[in-house]
Amino acid sequence: MEESAIITKAEKYLNNLDSEKLDFKNLENFDTFKSVYFRLCDRLDHLQEMKNIMDSQGYTAPFRSLNKYGVNVIDEVTVEERRESSRHNQYFRTKAVAKKNILDRVSSAIDSHKIAIGNLEEYSNLKCKSCYKTYRINEYKDNDSRCSCKSTKFSFKINNDRTHRIGILPYLPYSGNYMVLRTKLSNWGRNAFQKVIKILKQERRGVVKTISMSIRYKDKNDRILHKNISLDSDFLDDYEEEVRRQYGKDVRIERLSFHRSKPAIINDKHARNALALAYVRYSENIVLNIQDSFFKKRLTDFKRLNNYEHICDEINSQNPDFLENPNDLEDWRQLKIKEKLKSIGYIDKFDNLNRVLKRDLNIKENTEKTIFTNLPSALIIWDIFKYYLTSSNNRRRKLSSPFPYIRVELDRQQRSIFQKTYKKVIRVLADEAHEKIISIENMDLILYEKFKLEKLIKNSNMKINYPALGAALINLNSDIDIENIGNSFDVNVSKIKKEINNIEIIKKPKSEKSKKFLELIKK
Question: Which of 204, 276, 277, 494 could bridge across to 196 with cysteines, CB 3.0–4.6 Å?
Answer without folding.
Answer: 276
